[in-house]
């Protein structure tokens, strides 16, 4: 290809000149092509790989040089001699004569460069080459990556790094390629080639470590191998990127969301490094945005635009604090360099004025931002102030237009509902309403429309103040309230408050009861989501009311178990509010739906916050502060359990071994973490923990858990079993009291369950929290994130292994495959599903993966993926007819007609082919061809229906076709679907139940009984069956014998079909006629009406097939059946007369038909066919081959010239 001219200093080094003229030179790389160039060639090849030279991919090039100059210009390079010769000839024909006219050498150079650039521009225009952000160097690397590892276009390379790969004790210098779904390594040293391909989804451990010999090492572990890479130029960047890509893969395993590139990134600047791809920049931007959102508790979709150093004037201590300003689409945030000094969040929706103040020596380039609540923030020392102001004003403009649009929308909605609201004036707008059909009447509750609705936090309605004895406590509460009011006066109130060390001090002393809801909203960031989504909660409640599914059933079951000891939940008002919040959340996030422990946390939120506020607090908890905690597998809690174990090993090492032996850590951490200590501590103490959690995040829970262990260190070391340890910890937590609480004591359920031993002396909650900060306050949020990543890999891979074991355990009794074979097949099946998620498939991957389904249903594949697996694993996949056969097989296995098959269905099909007897295999082959053709207008609906009734009876009998289509017609409303073991049990009414029993009963009868019920095969279907048989044998050892046998069977069956046709016309003919025909084999009767032109004379004659079938009885058949021989692959093909498919052809004999018994009996007459279908299949070899093909992305080349290291 032509390339933009670049100068080359040493034209002769490492290149051999093959052609030359006064202006151009065609060169070949040393060591390329025949002979390999000896030692010099090996050295050059090694150098090319180590130095990432483009010559590795393009070993030919054309240089331009003026006669008197020493500088050469590369103007074209090519991967093959043919490509480069075309360019050379073009130059000789079109440019040489023109160049001789010029006198000045500079003019010649300018002309040649211009000409080449013109050709490139023209090519790009004609071939619609889009301009993208990736540099030429990176595009070259991408092409190299795809060529080396056989990856498709869809597999995007993110970056590549030079490093050494330790193969045994020998380091191989080469290149590590990191793409979205794979980690690949390539090395070529002195003729020895090493390739490694690892899928990110297979990685179980990824760590950066240092040893004495190797200072910086990245270790990548999979279930079977460990790979070590070292000698990086920038190990931190490489490791961070690898970590990020592995994380994306884990997310994909968890919720099946593929990676989508962000196309809205700013264009690349000219100065940017040559290697950085648009994808790498996208991932870097994501990582920065994630850190930014976590730091300031911002909504999930907030994207960081940029950050800059500056100072902020803090009026409370009259200082300019040094720190960083962050600007994103909807927020301006600030954090001080000294972490705890001050942080600030200014939502752009609150901003009224942004202005540049006058610069001075004291205050260089200041910027003042004013908000609606009359606060002004003064930033200074901004480097690029004008650009910053421009960005902020752009974002402000977007924000105000968004607000106007929302107002218009909500205004129009409210105006239509005015009458209804005026009738129910007492109802608060935050308590949404839902029409149940009667006009003008709205209700809130699923069961009873008379239930009153809470218009405020439940605690304010149920606060029972006891008489005089609480007065000192009330006074203390009043003082706390005053302290917070003073704080607001000094530091500001609401979102834009200056958050300082003093704020933290006040939180640790306990938030006053009356302010809890407001401050929880503020510190968790839920206030932002609530402000930007007005009316969202009302709509959700309205949509979700009256809907029933698995989540709502579980919610109903748990409603009365949520803080039952609190008076607010001892009546229908509190219960109804809890029901609405939980149902609305299940409707918002069907991936989570509802999980136990959410009810306890939500009931506490409802005590202190209004209903809508409680909903947004729950959103903040489930989606940001406790990620993945409340999904069906509580992955987040399991991850944090692993983190807690690591922290325990580090901070309480003397206790760690003892706890591991007792197995206590896993038991305690789930109950402590999932409910934020609410289920294990007295209520009034646990809410103090929740206060700190909303302020400081998950580190508070870790600190507190470590403090509890530390406080009980001696008792725990003396424990003999986990029960004793749990009792020690339970008694300790029961004794944690809040002496400041103004609430009447609420009996704590946990305390009622402990034994009658001596109660633990009281522990003050505020002292416990403070000591946790003093002893373990050094735990940093970013370190926790790092540890979470490591544990997430482990937890998700463990879950995947468990799923695999469960699937295999379910299926192993139904099939002849061994457990190991099933596990290997499951891995291949899942890999096919995952590959389709990121390389595209004919159906949407998210529709095929539903974590709420039983294990067997979780991964499903469509027909395109099935074709791939069919060709690799199924013994019948041979020749050109393989794909159509795969499609037929797929339709047969897909019982419910949703164009997807699960693992059980897949194994049932493969099992028949590998372990079935002759009759089963032939019945399967017959059924595949009896299936009606897929046409837009089905011509014979009766026969099609008749056929479908019997397709599925042998393979997996338990599913009813009609019922499944009913399931599919039900609309998916975004809820978790109600599924038990399989979809068939969705509605267990009596007829269905009997239907299944009947099906099972049928299955227990001898198989041969129902062969008579199989539909007959018509002529066109029979021709398809013949084509399948011919293509099936194309690569078999006994190919000629099988062809001969097939020809015999075919002619026999043709005769039978006609005989059957004749029989139907003459019903008085005795039925024994059929049997005579079956018995009379053409081998005995040489003068049979079906004549065979035999083999030896015609074998070498390519104009004629090895065997032609001529039916003397039907001349029409001569036109319909021809045998075409292409390189010894004999296939039966349709003649031109039936171009549009045989069913529509007029030449087809409508009455011609054969039964399965006739087909079976005919095949049994030929020993070669019997032997072929009875031959056992070695599935292990096929699995090994399939794994190799899948890992390298294409069939393996010979391994003699290089080593391939693969991981599973």
Automatic annotation (TrEMBL):
Domain called EF-hand: residue spans: 881-916
UniProt KW Cell division keyword: no
A Pfam family assignment: GRAM
Annotated ranges, domain Rab-GAP TBC: 510-697
Entry keyword set: GTPase activation, Repeat
GO molecular function: calcium ion binding; GTPase activator activity
Residue ranges with Polar residues bias: 423-436
Gene Ontology process terms (BP): system process
Region (Disordered): 415-448, 1061-1111
SMART domains: GRAM, TBC
UniProt function note: May act as a GTPase-activating protein for Rab family protein(s).
Name of the protein: TBC1 domain family member 9
Organism: Lates calcarifer (Barramundi)
